[in-house]
Amino acid sequence: MHTPNDPAGGPSPSRPAARSEAPTGSHEDMTDPAATAAAAAEVLTEATGVPRYDIALVLGSGWAEAADLMGRTIATVDATDIPGFSVSGVPGHRGTLRAVEIDSPTGTKHALVLGARTHYYEGRGVRAVAHPVRTAAAAGAETLVLTNGAGGLRREWVPGTAVLINDHLNLTAASPVEGANFVDLTDLYSPRLRAIAHTVDPDLPEGVYAQFPGPHYETPAEVRMARTLGADLVGMSTALEAIAARQAGMQVLGISLVTNLAAGVSPQPLSHAEVIAAGKEAGPRISALLTAIVQKILE
Ligand code: HPA
Fold first, then answer.
1. 46 is catalytic
2. Disulfide engineering: 290 pairs with which of 9, 66, 109, 157, CB 3.0-4.6 Å?
3. What kind of fold does domain 2-297 have according to CATH?
4. What is the pLDDT of residue 25?
């Protein structure tokens, strides 16, 4: 069956593989993303002694403390020791992968904490962005929690507010999916996992997250555009990773920490220091929230 934009049956006007190449940097170490993820998972399994992970988490700005709260860290691996990973160039982002053991009523579970996110704006290409997620899937994780720091478009979401992502706008003009793979993104942010999060905090607001390419913050006009398009949150991560996760068959939970009001929503100019400070301030509270949600998911 061919969908309307199925390139099969005629010369391909635009090869998706070409589109996914980085504007800068190369894919020398990632000519085959699936094979690189499989190799990374093998090294990770060996290094951590965990044969299969139950859940994986990407901890963005403000969320890092959750890793300590969630359970016992049984192994920490430098990202640079794992195929396909590179050191994060972003202050406030860690370059390690951690295996965390969590007690649950149904036995001991294992979480993979990915502290080594590659942002699209780093210029390493979409394959590098998707690699940690693909590695987690190859290491057995069927559930993925994506967290981030984001600009809020709603005034009532003061900095420090946690918001469940219920959908996204991918404004990067890129995709981690290559070739004629028409991945369904309906309910990408799992209603089941959102319902579990609401059992922990029924008042958790939900919103649509718009991923901009960055690394510059949005202009006020871009924020107004995002609002018109249906966004409640703006940021520079998550959407591409969520797509890669869905392609890999994972269930995705996304949570943003509002670190600031988006450009133009407040008269204040934006600064990375402000984003980090808001994350630090909210850290203990949102880490406890995330820990409780993860524990419920693993029950
Ligand atoms: N815009 C984009 N990314 C962000 C923001 C923002 O306002 N705050 C934190 N990350």
1. no
2. 66
3. Rossmann fold (3.40.50)
4. 35
